[in-house]
Amino acid sequence: MDDSDDRIRIDENVVMPDLEGQPPPPRVYPRLIRRLRIVMWLAAVGGLVMLAGGGYEYHRMQRLGREGKQVPGTLVDSSTLNTGKGRTSYHLVLDYKPPDSETTYRKEFFVDQTVYNQAQQAGQVPVTYLPSDPTLSTGNQQAKGDTEPLVIGGGLLLVAVGIWAYLRWQIRRVMRYVMGE
Question: So where does this one cross the membrane (predicted)?
Fold first, then answer.
């Protein structure tokens, strides 16, 4: 190693205490801590957004299941999409008109295979809509809310809490060492 390397400077006037018998100082990685803080905040904010959005959508679907009315929906267009690994997604475009409305609504629905086959054969599918908001509707037989955003949001919050706990533990270790405990 070259002696002209000035990246490491040692002040010869500083007397280092004798550390014999003392535990070694805890390792601190400032870059890692900075990055973990960023990940922690992103996970916390993302988790809250996912929980809020997923909870709202789940609530809307539950409300649609309780208060929804059914009307026949006329098939306008249908398509299937191979989403990979043997999975297929079924899409229907349906027109439906609530009985007390002048407006005919056209909406694309993602449905299961039985509803898709029924629409192909009969040309009609029952559409469940919310009378107070006819744009909130489903082409499936039952209105069921998606719980995946809730699970993902909860998982992100757990990651954020885990990182926070690790950072707190790291700070306590350093403080114990500095205070000589």
Answer: 38-56, 150-167
Confidence (pTM): 0.68
Residue 89 burial (CB count, 10 A): 13
The reply to whether 61 and 149 lie within a common domain is yes
Count CA within 13 A, CB hemisphere, residue 142. Answer: 4
What does the CA dihedral 37, 29, 13, 7 come to, rounded to 10 degrees? -110
Q: Are 75 and 123 in contact (CB under 8 A)?
A: yes
**Domain around 159:** 28-67+145-181
Task: Taking residues 38-47, report their average pLDDT.
Answer: 97
In terms of domains, do 80 and 63 share one?
no
Q: 153 Cβ partners below 8 Å, 6+ apart? A: 46, 47, 48, 49, 50, 51, 52, 54
| Residue 150 and residue 2 in contact, taking contact as beta carbons nearer than 8 Å | no
Check whether residue 74 and residue 108 sit in a common domain: yes
CA 4 remoteness from chain centre: 53
Number of domains in the chain: 2
